[in-house]
Amino acid sequence: MEQDNTFYLTTPIFYPNAKLHLGHAYVMTLADTLARAKRGAGVKTYFLAGSDENTQKMVDAASKAGKEPLEFLKAIVENFTNLYKELDIAFDQFIRTTDDQKHWPGASEIWKRLAQAGDLYKKEYEGLYCVGHEMFISEKDLVNGKCPDHDTPPERIKEENYFFRLSRFGGAIKAKIESGELKVVPESRKNEILAFIDRGLEDVSFSRPKKRGWPEGLGVPVPGDDSQVMYVWCDALANYISALGFGTDDDALYKEFWPANVHIIGKDILRFHAAIWPAMLISAGLPLPKTIFAHGIITSGGRKMSKSLGNVIDPQELIEKYGTDAVRYYLLRHVSPFEDGDLTRESFHDAYTANLANGLGNLVARTMTLAEEHLPHPVELTDEDEKLDAAFVEKIENFRFNEAMDLVFAMIGAADGIMTERAPYKGIKSGDAVERETARKDIEELVRRLAKISAHLAPALPRTSAAISSAVRKNHKPENLFPRIG
Length: 486
Prior knowledge:
48% of the residues lie in helices and 15% in strands. It is an alpha/beta fold and 486 residues long. The longest helix has 30 residues, at 345-374.
């Protein structure tokens, strides 16, 4: 399916069993920055987010809270969207897997296609079930009898389910990854999934029996078998096309935007997106996404965030203290998109103080104070003044968000160098007319540099970018962008 100047990107749909954490804020900020960059380049962009509500973890959390699942879901999903709003996440749609009008038709249609292809079968199965992964796992996956990712023992479950013949598709998926038809980024994740495929793919459970007492309205009913509901991964992965109207008469978005340009995910769900999802699409005769970008996780003090360790940092806490753009800044510049990254309250505060309060904020305040006092009118900007550097665009296109931010802060450093070395704040007060004119030109150059900095910050720090742009155009010093915080 050809795409003409369109861009479709998705994020994982998160389990609504608890508050969102910095990992969630991270992937959403990466995706939003990429979406804003594409829109800024004039590309018609569709950005999908959502919540995965057909999960045992959510049901368990609702029970613990003493609430009915659907009631519990409503409050948790509102927490999701409220955090996204505070982070300035500008998605085009938020899909919920309990939406029987929007999501269920597409999930049902892909199930029917898998069945028609002969890739679903029913059998009784007994195995170890990890609630954290929402999947059956094998003995060889365990460490000391526990899931290594969640440090919890799996449950032993015996039931009759539909299974998907994932084992049939290893060779086809491998060929598509190695040819670049399905690009997996970074290279380390590509190698990881290829090694996983080489070990042999096993058929996977794709349904659960209703007799287990699953709450009504959470699982998509299996077409043609009222005794079963779709299992979470078949249900959840279908969101990427169900949200576009696949399986309905209103499928204009699907025709325009599928296949996805990028699925942005965490490395912990790579197997589902780079093995199960491509196999489903191949079986159903549908195009594969173009790129899967799997980022690392955020640790704190070198350790995975855990309530028991006391190192969990709530993104809401940081937003309230430092502001939205400060959080976006740290996540984009100080966390590697390809490896695990660390964040502590101390490292966050130090970066904020050095680079935002004393760096960018101070530069904007000093420059626009001089401009307001000594330039008779706003600087007339040219297209070149706000043109994005090719290197910056290339970094964003290749998910090197931290390196893109480094380029912007190199621009800030260069402007600071002009302020320090040429000292226009001194020359503008000189009794010599030539010195005053030179200083005036230096101030104008600094303003132009702020305009360029603002243009480059637009995808990453939209509020800051807008404030700087407005200040330049009005020739007026803005309010303190990044107040010093003790």
